[in-house]
Amino acid sequence: MDIYHQTLAELCVGLEKGDFTSVELTQSLLDRVAVEDKRLNSFITITATEALAAAASADEARANGNTGALNGLPIVHKDIFCTKGVKTTCGSKMLDNFISPYSATVVKKIANAGAVVLGKCNMDEFAMGSSNETSFFGPVRNPWNLECTPGGSSGGSAASVAARLVPAATGTDTGGSIRQPAALTGTVGLKPTYGRVSRYGMIAFASSLDQAGMITRSVEDAARMLGVMAGFDKRDSTSINQAVPDYLASIGKSIKGLRIGIARQHFDEGLDERTRTKVKDAISVLESMGATTIEIDLPNINLSVPTYYVVAPAECSSNLSRFDGVRFGYRAENAEDLLDLYCRSRGEGFGDEVKRRIMTGAYVLSAGYYDAYYIKAQQVRQLIADDFKEAFFNVDLIVGPTTPSPAFKLGDKVDDPIQMYLNDIYTVGANLAGLPAMSIPCGFVNDMPVGLHLVGPHFGEEVLLRCGHQYQQETDWHMACPEAFK
Amino acid sequence: MSLNKNQAQHIAMLARLKLSDDEYAESVEKLSKIIDFVDQLSAVDTTDIIPMAHPLAAAQRLRPDDVTEVDNRDHYQQNANEVVDGLYLVPKVLE
User: Fold this and answer.
1) Cα–Cα distance between A146 and A203 in angstroms, integer?
2) Which residues of B touch A194 (CB under 8 A)?
3) Rounded to whole angstroms, how far apart are CA atoms A464 and A225?
4) Partner-chain contact A434 B56, CB within 8 Å
5) For strand A43-46 and strand A116-121, is the pairing parallel, antiparallel, or unpaired?
6) CATH code linked to domain A3-260+394-485
7) Which of B3, B10, B20, B34 to probe by mutation at the A interface, max A CB count within 10 Å?
């Protein structure tokens, strides 16, 4: 098997046996990226020199018997993670000139585990988008059909993993930004519990919703990555101080007796008929493996998208106020005065969707509207979270579709923000309630991948990973490779 | 409800964003759609519901008020557009 088809787990065995070195592996993937990414645009920055140096160190560490969980394994970071000495753009003109003076905790942890970082991945600007079309660096293309979107905002991460440019990528998920692109590209995407992975150094969009996670090809690899990324960080005031389990240790256990909740609201008229069939088939597979299904009710879940589009823009308008053209980032030329400097730097530095979200946020937080929109949304958010809490008294996890339909064409929804926002209809609930959730491949519709969505209770990553891994022992959807990248 | 251009200009000023005339026209249209969309929340009965403050109902952690960071000013200012003697330069504020 060609080296680029291998998962982290397989590459780890190859490195251990001495079939190849990390330097050889890294060079081979860098060569592949240089050729194949011309079709995808999944990278913003390629860090070849740093990668080869890290690979040489990893080989040396291995020779000395000193190996971390990711030693010598190539990964990429979404360009939202600050990486010391490397350009960190967040997909924006605003940060096109920003060389991060420090590294995110996630970046440090992955480096300490011995990983080799090939570069920084393209994304929707400031993680605001569901199609990767809001990136200042141009859209990413879907490896399964180059005319389609790979989803967003972690579109570069998903496309690079799906096209076998790299076995694993970091991502972030505020309303579905890991899981939706994973579904649309036939990859595995995990958003952990809010507070499970440090947000320090991850450029903030909506701080009560943002969470870092990963995109991989197998659930087993997601478990490996989570073990490295998770854990308490005193530098993140919302990090939760709870021990990190050995995620790889429990994925092998059977799912016999697992109680799976099926919410009728996840299968309503908004769901594409053929996607519904694929998701139902996957649930039948889980039942055949010994899981039992229980009908549950999430009565307020249909309010999750409007709730999200109050809370997230409000937090975004506050977080993005730091971009002022003074201390770092884009600065407009020939400003008349300080106000003109602020307004023009931001007007010229931000793209349309980011400006729209900042303005939505400024509106819902403005005098006279705060109670009607922001407080109201936080109340509805509590109702949505209570529905999940109630459901988890009776079930171990909730399963449904990740997205209403497979990948759409680039350009199809770019002019209609509401249609674009409704892509997140099945994913935002987990962010609002702070729950862990994962998308895994479960089939194809018109040769485009379909994602199965699994949601667990707080800190229920183990049950998601176990269910997903066991499903991947019975099925081979996750092994499929896009024809154009074989 | 739909916004008018004056409201859009007010919001843009609150957000410190300078927009072109074309951008205002588009903002008015698209922001109105978004506001209409989120307005469906107003129909929900939320009597006695406490607004969520944290998804895990956790309290904000505090730490002792000690100096824990070293001074990295020169390093951080490498990303600034205009710096003199360790100070960020902006257009004149006072005459």
Assistant:
1) 29
2) 55-56
3) 14
4) yes
5) antiparallel
6) 3.90.1300.10
7) B34
Task: Return the number of other C-beta atoms located less than 10 Å from residue A255's C-beta.
Answer: 22
Which of A446, A358, A397, A407 is CA-nearest to residue A149?
A407
**Domain extents for chain A?**
3-260+394-485
A98·B79 Cβ contact <8 A: yes
Structure tokens at B63: 């730490």
A419 in contact with B, Cβ within 8 Å: no
Would the CB atoms of A324 and B16 count as touching at under 8 Å?
A: yes
**Residue positions of A annotated with a catalytic role:** 78, 153, 177
- β-pairing verdict for A211-216 and A168-173: antiparallel
Rounded to two decimals, the ipTM of the complex is: 0.95
- Asked if A44 and A79 count as a contact pair (C-beta separation under 8 A), the reply is yes
The alpha carbon of residue B52 is apart from the nearest alpha carbon of chain A, in Å, by 5
User: Which of A208, A303, A307 is closest, CB to CB, to B55?
Assistant: A208
Question: Over the stretch A402-419, which tens digit does the pLDDT of each residue have?
Answer: 999 999 999 999 888 888
CA gap A29, B67 in Å, rounded: 44
| Distance in angstroms (rounded) separating the CA atoms of residues A38 and A385 | 43
Which CATH number is associated with domain B5-41?
A: 1.10.20
Query: What are the residues whose beta carbons fall under 8 Å from the beta carbon of B4, sequence distance 6 or more?
Result: B28
CB contact under 8 A, B17 and A343: yes
CB atoms within 10 A of CB A445: 17
pLDDT tens for A326-381 read 999 999 999 999 999 999 999 999 999 999 999 999 999 998 999 999 999 999 99
pTM of the model: 0.97
Q: Is A437 helix (H, G, I), strand (E, B) or coil?
A: strand
What residue segments make up the domains of chain B, in order of their start?
Answer: 5-41
Residue in B17, B49, B54 to test binding to A, most A beta-carbons within 10 Å = B17
Contact status, residue B91 vs residue A340, Cβ threshold 8 Å? yes
Round to whole Å and give the CA distance between A343 and A347.
6
